[in-house]
């Protein structure tokens, strides 16, 4: 696996960016770049499960590995979800099971730097290099709106 890193400067306080990232409505907007209609189900507490889902019920079963409000969120991806059911780890998912996805916010003089890092398997690297910048641009747009 390769760790991909993306960074963007946003002219908004980190609390606003955090809200855009994890508020149900805006989360659905910026993650639509990856999959139209995607959403997450969780209580959003550190150590809790989180299901990242597409409208047809496919997605990833993960845990909230670490959460520091307005500063840091990390997910550990465990297995696939098919038709809303957690699947056991098989040979295909073994390749990426345990992959991490992390978000860090730092603010200086009203400018927030959003850093996103994720572990990716080789076959998805080009896809993520194209889609992540678009997703972060949308987070920036939503965060900078009044």
Q: Give the N-to-C terminal Cα separation.
A: 39 Å
Overall mean confidence score, pLDDT: 95
Number of helices: 4
Total strands: the figure is 8
- Mind describing the biggest β-sheet? 8 strands, antiparallel
CATH architecture label = 2-Layer Sandwich
Strand content: 35-45%
Q: What is the string of helix and strand elements?
A: EHHEEEEEHEEH
The share of residues in helices is 25-40%
Organism: Flavobacterium yafengii
Family: Belongs to the AHA1 family.
InterPro entries: ASHA1/2-like_C, START-like_dom_sf
Protein name: SRPBCC domain-containing protein
Overview of the structural elements:
The chain is α+β, with helices and mostly antiparallel strands and 146 residues long. The protein has a single domain (2-144), classed as Alpha-D-Glucose-1,6-Bisphosphate, Chain A, domain 4 (2-Layer Sandwich), CATH 3.30.530. Helix content is 28%, strand content 41%. Strands 1, 2, 3, 4, 5, 6, 7 and 8 form an eight-stranded antiparallel sheet that branches. The protein is globular, with a radius of gyration of 15 Å. It starts with a strand and ends with a helix.
List the helices and strands and how they pair.
Blueprint (H helix, E strand, L loop, with lengths): L1 E9 L3 H9 L1 H8 L7 E4 L6 E5 L5 E10 L3 E11 L2 E2 L4 H4 L5 E9 L2 E10 L4 H20 L2
Antiparallel strand pairs: 1-8, 2-3, 3-4, 4-5, 5-6, 5-7, 7-8
């Amino acid at each position: 696996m390769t760790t991909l890193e993306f960074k963007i400067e946003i002219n908004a306080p980190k609390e606003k960016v955090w809200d855009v990232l994890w508020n149900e409505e805006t989360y659905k907007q910026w993650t639509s770049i990856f999959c139209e209609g995607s959403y997450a189900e969780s209580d959003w507490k550190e150590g809790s499960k989180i299901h990242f889902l597409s409208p047809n019920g496919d997605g990833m079963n993960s845990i909230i590995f670490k959460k520091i409000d307005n500063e840091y969120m990390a997910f550990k991806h465990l297995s696939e979800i098919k038709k809303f059911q957690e699947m056991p780890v098989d040979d295909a998912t073994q390749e990426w099971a345990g992959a991490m996805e992390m978000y860090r916010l730092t603010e200086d003089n009203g400018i927030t730097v959003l850093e996103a890092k994720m572990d990716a398997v080789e076959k998805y690297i080009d896809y993520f290099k194209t889609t992540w910048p678009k997703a972060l641009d949308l987070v920036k747009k939503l965060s900078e709106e009044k």
